[in-house]
Design brief:
With 169 residues, this protein is α+β, with helices and mostly antiparallel strands. The chain has five helices and four strands; from the N terminus they run H-H-E-H-E-H-E-H-E. Helix 2 runs antiparallel to helix 4. The longest helix is centred in the middle third of the chain and has 18 residues. The model has no long low-confidence stretch (mean pLDDT 97). The structure holds flavin mononucleotide (FMN).
Length: 169
């Protein structure tokens, strides 16, 4: 799929078939995440692949907007490593860019995905850290549920000319 077509047609998919994701496709998603821009090329990220159904099914207990994980075969937790973060505190932007790259790569490959916010909701942050036994230096930022879509929302055009300014406000 061409890049602009992927950007213009991507939607959040929350309705998944239970079929597993091939390892090659998973590798492409992780590679897309790590290909994202980051401040000073700091790449402060780690990615935790979650495909154990017991773990996926435990997440909605502390993340009420993540019920689609009862069906999704896989999720990728995008994390920032405090030891790799720059003093400019750009880790949230860096991890967000990686998250968006994963969403677009999933869509381009015919997979469905949805961004599930983790940071800064403390219940979600502590919930993920406890569930996955994460070291204290690792901050969970966002979780991407991935699977083959059982249904896909129609593309929407969100362009608003009144939100565009040129040279001055
Ligand atoms: C920071 C962030 C957090 C989000 N958290 C959730 C979430 O917890 N659960 C969910 O179902 N969707 C979540 N979304 C997805 C948005 O609801 C979705 O992107 C938005 O409604 C636009 O729809 P679209 O992705 O289909 O274009 C999140 C998106 C972002 C960027």
């Amino acid at each position: 799929m061409e890049a602009l077509e992927a950007i213009f047609t991507r939607r959040s998919v929350r309705d998944f078939k239970t079929d597993p994701i091939p390892e090659d496709d998973l590798h492409d998603l992780l590679r897309a995440g790590m290909q994202a821009p980051s401040a000073r090329n700091g790449q402060p990220w780690h990615f935790i692949v979650i495909d154990d159904p017991d773990l996926l099914h435990a997440i909605p207990d502390f993340h009420r907007a993540a019920k689609m994980l009862m069906e999704a075969p896989l999720a990728i937790l995008v994390c920032s490593d405090r030891k790799l973060e720059s003093k400019r505190a750009s880790w949230l932007q860096d991890c967000s860019a990686a998250t968006q790259n994963i969403l677009l790569a999933a869509h381009a490959k015919g997979l469905g995905a949805v961004w599930l916010g983790i940071f800064p909701d403390s219940e979600r942050v502590f919930g993920m850290q406890a569930l996955l036994e994460m070291p204290k230096d690792i901050r969970p930022v966002s979780l991407v549920a991935v699977g083959y879509p059982a249904s896909t929302p129609e593309p929407v055009d969100r362009f608003k000319v009144e939100r565009v300014h040129r040279n001055q406000w």
